[in-house]
Hints:
The structure is a homodimer.
Chain A: H1 21-43, H2 46-51, H3 57-64, H4 67-88, H5 96-113, H6 115-126, H7 130-134, H8 144-158, H9 168-184, H10 186-193, H11 200-218
Helix pairs in contact in A: 1-4, 1-6, 3-4, 5-8, 5-9, 5-11, 8-9, 9-11
The structure holds a DNA duplex.
Amino acid sequence: MTKPAEMPPGKRRQASWxxxxxxxxxxxxxxAREEFVENGLxxxxxxxxxxxxATSKRMIYYYFGDKEGLYRAVLEGMxxxxxxxxxxxxxxxxxxxxxxxxxxxxxxxxxIENPDFVRMVMVENVHHAxxxxxxxxxxxxxxxxxxVTRGIYERGVAAGLFRSGLEPLDISLTISALSIYNVSHRxxxxxxxxxxxxxxxALARRxxxxxxxxxxxxxx
Amino acid sequence: MTKPAEMPPGKRRQASWxxxxxxxxxxxxxxAREEFVENGLxxxxxxxxxxxxATSKRMIYYYFGDKEGLYRAVLEGMxxxxxxxxxxxxxxxxxxxxxxxxxxxxxxxxxIENPDFVRMVMVENVHHAxxxxxxxxxxxxxxxxxxVTRGIYERGVAAGLFRSGLEPLDISLTISALSIYNVSHRxxxxxxxxxxxxxxxALARRxxxxxxxxxxxxxx
DNA sequence: TGATAAATGTACTGATTAGTTCAATCGGTC
DNA sequence: GACCGATTGAACTAATCAGTACATTTATCA
Lengths: 220, 220
């Protein structure tokens, strides 16, 4: 009760400590996410990550092997999250146009609320998705959103509301493009056009324009 | 006439050399563009750039001061190019819907044909547009495209073709989002959905969907 | 309780990397 | 043809950084 009580919580235990593999792992992953999202893979520093951790650099290598292993683990975690978001979508009960609107809005909102994911995907694209390729967990766990989109689209075509001949995947990609852009290009757009896409007002506009664009593209 | 004739053009002059400031500058910028586009700012190596140059590392620092100065110069060059593309647009003679289609298509094509620019903008966004901010040349030389868009949009509204109340800038951003995505996210989409957005077929589809989305969003 | 494996801390190292030093050479000019 | 600023080359350096060696502590279980 002499020293431990005054420890800044989460940092610097010395004489005695208790094992907590899962906690250490989580802690490292959290810090690493912030650093990779902020600085990219090559910009992030293992020493900086370690310093912001409750543990030491040693542990990073113990659990994740090397810097890229850590990066991959962060990436996988983020894809896990969005996959579970996609699985949570349940739009079968709604009429086609409404379902498609809700799908676009939910996707839009997800990206606004998860800028870290958007930035990580950007970083990964700069690296030509090399680490995505290397990850068994992620590869080929793909199409849940596309299936949702296909379902809605086909109902819409059957109901005579949507024009036929479109690829569901293309529809998904259009929604994705319009959703991601607000986050991914916020900085350059902000600078070049002196316009912040992420104020509540701007977001409301861009959100409704996204829905309008998607539905406009589908209607016959 | 003894040595110079057999020099691999652009590399390794030694005993004697001829001054060519502009050539050296251009050469460095070209190589640097490739490297920054491929590896990002922190991923690019000054030594690698120098090695691929017809000149030496010394010259990089002589002309550009430091790594960031070189990066900024590359960035500025790319924005110069797209600004001149934007100025070249002349759509006033066309009826509003056709003009808007052509604008969307031209923007789409520009990004497909200039993946380096798209990637550089991505990199810059990862850095929160810090270098764009620092560049006098680029800052505030903005809105030419938006002016073009506004012109077309207002003609369309006046003609009763487009619904009113939209922001021209938002229309520009929608076109931009749909155009950039194909290049910027080619790698991750390719991996996650096992789909190459940049085959001729895929591009044709995405191009026409982009036009459909933009017009669909504008029509009343 | 003692042996063993898992988890952790401390201190170090070899390589890489941005940036520099110093001097040589070129292209004009007077 | 000598002088001077602009341009260039080759080798060097100080700092940074990913990764490691080695020792120590904790938990588990027989």
